[in-house]
Design goal:
alpha+beta; TATA-Binding Protein; five-stranded antiparallel β-sheet; 11 helices
Length: 449
Amino acid sequence: MSGAVEGVVKRLLAWISDLRVAIGLLIVIAVASGLGTLVPQKESAQLYHRVFDAEPWLGLFNGDAILALQLDHVYSSGWFLALLAWLGLALILCSWRRQWPALQAALRWIDYRTPRQLSKLTLAESLDCPDAGAELGQLEQVLRVRGWQLQRQGDRLAARKGVAGRVGPLLVHAGLVVLMVGAAWGSLGGQRLERYLAPGNELELLNSRGDTQVTVTLEDFAIERDPAGRPEQFRSQLKLIAGNGAEASGGPAAAAQAGSTSHEISVNHPLRYRGMTLYQADWALAAIDLQLGNSPILQLPLQSFPQLGDQVWGIVLPTRPDGSNPVLLAVSNEQGPVTAYSAEALELGTLIPGGSAVEIAGIPLRIAAVVPASGILLKRDPGVPLVYAGFAIALAGGALSLVATRQLWAIAEPEHHKLHVGGLCNRNLTAFAQELPALLAALPTEVPS
């Protein structure tokens, strides 16, 4: 019974470590990664219902289907992490069953004792020479100078070069496993936070114990526009203050960095700070400063009105003490203009930020300013060092895999005045076939026709 179980386990391990299965897994993971770029990730459930219920994705998947299949968070979904774990297991088993034995075999010296054994190798040559023993010694010196590893036993010589190339496949597999571990760790333990901040507002980031790790304050936000008014660049001036949580979690090194620092971020120029990255992601309009008649300037928050356009913000303002006869003030950028509409969607007037007052529904209104908000995206990915390390290990392994492992044997027969030479190479055999005659040409021997 135990033998049958052992046979089943061996067949299962062989199937898991099969190259075709690994290639299939890579294709499935690539397709799944593509899904993660096509479907918005980690948004609210309402967004998926609003976007995909009316027009199902690919004509098949509505909001409920996308949420049920975890397509809203592909990279941290259970099935995607299971695929990564399966591929990692396949690579580990392949390394254990094939690459490690191949490396051990390459490190073992093979002792060919007879010329007949050498004649069966891929490359084989027999040379006539007056003193075969002396020629074997000269061949040993030539190989040593050219960096070959040697083992001499009497009239027999074994040499090898490029054994490090056998380590390459193992490093590639190890690098891929480390990379996948880093990706999984980042998906499970990473943080992603996007907030809109108006100048003067701040955001506190807390650690897992609820301590303040860092406070981010937006000191200034500017939108650079082209002559046609289209936004070209967004710049945020940030003030970062380290909290007690950073000192407690980071120890003396974090404590040494405590204090406030100012940094500027812009599109394509993020800030990396204490293991997190702050991106300039978007912009919005936060508030409007207005004056009603001779009143003080009031700052009122704006809200998005997607039914009026993609980037339209506004506020409903009552014009009577009882809240009746409201007007809508709508604006699309911080430069204005601000358009006033009645409850019947009739245009009542246009106001310019910083301009003079305009009478709207019997009330003089003046727009002092429109306050923009900076969309700041914060990401913390603890798996990034492992991902980079995995890439580095895999690239090193790929470079080493290009190194050809060459093996050469020579047997001297002084009584027959012959030197027999044979060689093997795991790749680029043509180059080795050209190198071998060059090695033998350095010896004062005659190659038979």
